[in-house]
Write a structure and sequence with these properties.
Number of domains of chain A: 1
Radius of gyration of chain B: 23 Å
Oligomer: heterodimer
CATH topology of the largest domain in chain B: ABC transporter involved in vitamin B12 uptake, BtuC
Strand order of the largest sheet of chain A: 1-4
Order of helices and strands of chain B: HHHHHHHHEEHHHHHHH
CATH class of the largest domain in chain B: Mainly Alpha
Strand order of the largest sheet of chain B: 1-2
Shape of chain B: globular
Number of domains of chain B: 2
Number of strands of chain A: 4
Shape of chain A: globular
Number of strands of chain B: 2
Structural class of chain B: mainly alpha
Largest sheet of chain A: 2 strands, antiparallel
Strand content of chain A: under 5%
C-alpha cells in the first residue's frame, strides 16, 4: 500500500510539478497568477489527441513508434506555446500597468473562455486518449510499476533539469532572471522585456503541454474541465514550494502529490481535493513564502 | 497601412490556433471572424485618430452621458422614483409566469451582486468563492426547515447570521493576504464548501440535494406563485439597495474605499484594517445568505450543483460588467446577465465562453464597467493607470 501510493504520488507529482513551473515562472516575472494556465495544459492534452488521430489515419503509429511519440509531444508543445503567447498578448499585456485586480479578472475570463471554447468545439463528453505505448509492468517493493510511469517520471525530471540549465546558463535565461528581479531596470540595461515575457509564457505553456499529454497517456481519458482542478493543485504546489522559485515549484509538486496520495490512501479518497485546498490555505496563512522562499528578488507578496 | 497589413496575419494566426481543436471549416470561420474584428477595431482606431468619426462618436458619448446624468439626477427625485416603483409593482401583472420567474431570479442575483460588490467593489478584495456564502444561506434554511420545521422569516435571520459568520471565519485567516492570494484562497474555500456539501451525505444528502423545502408564509398566506416571490424579492432588493447605499456613504464605506486604494496608507491614516476587512467579508456574505434563503424557498429544491465556481464567476462578472463599486451599474450587470441568456436561448452553449470573453474585453477596453462609479471616489479612481506603475508592490 505504502509503496503503491508512493509510486502513484510520484507520477502525479511529476505532472503537478510541470504545471507548477508555468505558474511560478510567470509569477516570478509579472507577479500575476496566470489563471488560464490550467486550460493550456488541458488544450495540450486535446491537441495530443488530435495529433494521434491524424497519425493514426496516416498509419505512422504502426510504422514508426518513436517518431509518433516525438510528434505527440512536440506538436502540442508548439501549439501550447502559441496559445500561451497569444494569451499574454491578448489578455495580459494591455493590462500590465492596470490596477492589480484587472489582470486577475481578465485571467479568470480567459480561463472560462478557453475551457468553454474547447467544450463547444470538442463536445462536453470525455475523450479517449488512444493508447500509444504498450509497456509492461513489474513489481517493486510490493508496488506495481509500469513502463509508462517510469517514462513520465524520467521525461519530467529531464525537462526540469533542462529548464534549470536554460535559466542558469543561457543568455535568455539570464534575461529572465533579470526581468524577474526588476523589470524596469532590466529594460534599462537592454533586455527586451516584452520578448522575455513572451518567452516565459511559451516555456510555461510547453511544460504544461507535456504534462497534458502525459496525463492523457496515463489516464487514457481527457475532458474539458481537467484544467481547473489541475491548475488549482499546481498553483498550490507552486505556493507550497515558494512561488517564483523554480526549484520550489517542483519540490512543491512532488510534495503535494505525495501528501495527497497518502491522504487518499489512508484517510479519505473522497476528500482528496478538499485536502489539497486545505494545504493551500494553511500554507498561505502560516508560510506564504513557501518552503524555499520566494523568487529571491523583491520579496513581495502583495 | 501597416495596421491593415496585420489583419490577414492575425486571422491566419487564430485559424492556426483553432485548427487542431475545431477542425478545418470552423478554424477558417474563426480566422475570418478574428480578422474582421481586428479590422473593424483598427479602422475605428484609425478614424478616431484622424478625427473623421470624432463628431458622431463624441455626440454619442455626450448623449449617453447626459442621458445617464438625467436618470441619475432624477433618481433622487421622489416623484420619478415613485413612478418607477409603481412601474415595478405593476410589471408582473403584464407578464406571464415564466417571465416573472426570470425577474425573481434577476432580483436574487441583484442581491448577490450587490453583496459581492461590497467585497470586491467597495473594499477591493477579490472574492472568488462568493457562492459558498450563498450555499451556506440556502442550506441553512433547507436543513433547518426540513429537520426542525423552522419557518422562512426566522430562517432569513439565521441564514444571514450564519453566512456572515462564515464570512468572518474565512476573513480571519486571510487578513494578511492581498490581491491574487486572497482570490485563490477564497476560491479554495468555495470549492471546500461545495465538496463538503457534495460528500457529507448524512446531513446534506450529497449530490441528490434537499427536496421539499417549505414555502414562506405571510400571515396566513402561503407564498408560492412567482408573483408572490416577485414582490418578496422586490422588497428585499429595496432593503439591500438602501443599506448598501448607506454603507457606501458611511464612515465604514470610506474606510473600505481607503483600504481599496492603498491598504498601507489607510492603516497609517488610522483605519483599523482588521475590523474593516472583516466587516467587508461579513456584509458581503450576509447578502449572499439573504439571497440563498430566498433561493431555496423559491426553488424548494437545492443541490450542490447550484453552487459551483461558475456561479461565483457569473456574479463576479455582473459586478465587473456593470462597474465595480457602482450600485446602479452592478444592478444593470445583474439584469443583463440574467435576462440576456433567457432572450438568447439558442446561444446557451456559448454562454460561458461569451461571458469569459466579455470579462477579458471589459478589463482591456473599459475597466470601469458600463456605468462608472460616481461620487466621492471619482477623483480617487485610477483614471490614468500609467501613474500607478508598481504601486501595488
Amino acid at each position: 500500500m505504502f509503496a503503491q501510493q508512493l509510486v502513484n504520488g510520484l507520477v502525479v507529482g511529476a505532472v503537478y510539478a510541470l504545471i507548477a513551473l508555468g505558474y511560478t515562472l510567470v509569477y516570478g516575472i509579472l507577479q500575476l497568477i496566470n489563471f488560464a494556465h490550467g486550460e493550456i495544459y488541458m488544450i495540450g492534452a486535446y491537441v495530443g489527441i488530435a495529433v494521434l488521430a491524424v497519425l493514426g489515419t496516416m498509419g505512422l503509429t504502426q510504422t514508426s513508434l518513436a517518431l509518433s511519440i516525438v510528434l505527440v509531444f512536440l506538436i502540442p508543445m508548439i501549439y501550447c506555446a502559441a496559445y500561451g503567447i497569444t494569451l499574454e498578448r491578448v489578455a495580459y499585456r494591455p493590462l500590465r500597468n492596470a490596477p492589480r485586480l484587472s489582470p486577475l479578472i481578465s485571467a479568470i475570463g480567459m480561463s472560462l473562455f478557453l475551457q468553454n471554447y474547447v467544450q463547444v468545439v470538442q463536445g462536453a463528453r470525455d475523450k479517449a486518449f488512444p493508447n500509444l505505448l504498450e509497456l509492461g509492468s513489474f513489481q517493486l517493493f510490493g508496488a506495481y510499476v509500469n513502463g509508462l510511469q517510469i517514462f513520465i517520471l524520467v521525461l519530467a525530471l529531464g525537462l526540469m533539469a533542462a529548464l534549470q540549465l536554460f535559466i542558469k546558463k543561457t543568455k535568455l535565461g539570464k534575461a529572465m532572471r533579470a526581468t524577474a528581479q526588476d523589470r524596469t531596470m532590466a529594460s534599462l540595461v537592454g533586455v527586451n522585456v516584452n520578448r522575455v515575457i513572451a518567452v516565459t509564457f511559451a516555456i510555461g505553456s510547453v511544460l504544461a503541454a507535456v504534462a497534458g499529454v502525459m496525463v492523457g497517456m496515463y489516464y487514457g481519458i481527457v475532458n474539458h474541465h481537467i484544467g481547473f482542478v489541475a491548475g488549482m493543485k499546481a498553483f498550490t504546489a507552486a505556493v507550497l514550494g515558494g512561488i517564483g522559485n523554480v526549484t520550489g515549484a517542483f519540490l512543491g509538486g512532488f510534495l503535494l502529490a505525495l501528501l495527497e496520495s497518502f491522504w487518499a490512501g489512508y484517510v479519505s479518497a473522497v476528500y482528496k481535493d478538499v485536502f489539497a485546498f486545505m494545504v493551500l490555505v494553511v500554507v498561505l496563512i502560516f508560510r506564504p513564502e513557501g518552503i524555499l522562499g520566494g523568487s529571491g528578488g523583491e520579496a513581495d507578496r502583495t | 497601412m501597416s495596421t491593415y497589413a496585420r489583419v490577414p496575419l492575425i486571422g491566419l494566426w487564430f485559424a492556426f490556433l483553432a485548427l487542431p481543436l475545431a477542425g478545418w471549416k470552423n478554424s477558417l470561420w474563426i480566422g475570418l471572424g478574428c480578422a474582421a474584428v481586428v479590422f473593424v477595431v483598427s479602422a475605428a482606431r484609425a478614424s478616431a485618430q484622424s478625427g473623421a468619426l470624432a463628431g458622431p462618436a463624441q455626440r454619442i458619448k455626450t448623449g449617453f452621458a447626459s442621458a445617464w446624468g438625467f436618470i441619475e439626477e432624477k433618481s433622487y427625485d421622489k416623484r420619478y422614483l415613485s413612478l418607477f416603483l409603481l412601474l415595478i409593482i405593476a410589471l408582473p401583472w403584464t407578464l406571464d409566469r415564466y417571465s416573472t420567474d426570470v425577474l425573481v431570479i434577476t432580483g436574487i442575483y441583484v442581491m448577490l451582486a450587490l453583496g459581492l460588490n461590497v467585497v470586491v467593489g467597495f473594499a477591493g478584495l477579490l472574492d472568488l468563492g462568493y457562492v459558498a456564502f450563498y450555499a451556506v444561506g440556502a442550506y441553512s434554511y433547507a436543513l433547518l426547515n426540513s429537520w426542525y420545521g423552522l419557518s422562512f422569516w426566522p430562517a432569513l435571520g439565521v441564514g444571514v447570521a450564519s453566512s456572515a459568520l462564515f464570512g468572518i471565519i474565512l476573513g480571519i485567516p486571510v487578513l494578511r493576504l492581498r490581491g491574487d492570494y486572497l482570490a485563490i484562497v477564497t476560491l479554495g474555500f468555495g470549492e471546500i464548501i461545495r465538496l463538503v456539501l457534495n460528500n457529507w451525505d448524512n446531513v446534506t444528502q450529497g449530490p441528490n440535494g434537499i427536496l421539499g423545502i417549505g414555502r414562506p408564509y405571510l400571515g396566513e398566506m402561503r407564498l408560492y406563485k412567482p408573483m408572490h416571490f416577485y414582490y418578496l424579492v422586490v422588497v428585499l432588493c429595496i432593503v439591500t439597495i438602501f443599506i448598501v447605499n448607506r454603507l457606501d456613504k458611511s464612515r465604514l464605506g470610506r474606510a473600505w474605499a481607503a483600504m481599496r486604494e492603498d491598504e498601507t496608507v489607510a492603516e497609517c491614516m488610522g483605519v483599523n484594517i482588521v475590523y474593516t476587512k472583516l466587516s467587508a467579508f461579513a456584509f458581503g456574505a450576509a447578502w449572499a445568505g439573504f439571497g440563498g434563503v430566498v433561493f431555496s424557498a423559491k426553488q424548494t429544491f437545492i443541490s450542490p450543483e447550484s453552487f459551483t465556481f461558475f456561479e461565483s464567476v457569473i456574479i463576479l462578472c455582473m459586478v465587473v460588467l456593470g462597474g465595480m463599486a457602482s450600485i446602479p451599474g452592478v444592478m444593470l450587470g445583474a439584469f443583463i446577465l440574467t435576462v440576456l441568456p433567457e432572450v438568447l436561448r439558442e446561444l446557451t452553449l456559448f454562454r460561458p465562453m461569451l461571458l469569459g470573453g466579455a470579462m477579458v474585453l471589459m478589463m482591456v477596453l473599459r475597466p470601469q464597467g458600463l456605468l462608472q462609479a460616481k461620487g466621492q471616489r471619482h477623483h480617487l479612481e485610477r483614471d490614468k493607470p500609467e501613474s500607478k506603475t508598481g504601486a501595488g508592490r
